[in-house]
Amino acid sequence: MKHHATDAHTLVAAYALGALEDSEREDFAAHLQTCEACRQEAAEFEATAARLAAAVSQPPAAASKAQVMAAIDGVRQLPPRIPAPAAHPASGGMLRRRAVPLALAACVAAAALGGLAAWQTQNGQDLKQQTRQVQRQLDAVSAVLAAPDARTVHGRASNGAVTTVVTSGRQNKAVFSAAGLPAPAAGRTYQLWLDHGGTMRPAGLIDHDGTVVLTGSPADAAAVGLTLEPAGGSPRPTTDPLLLLPLPA
Question: Do 100 and 182 belong to one domain?
Answer without folding.
Answer: no
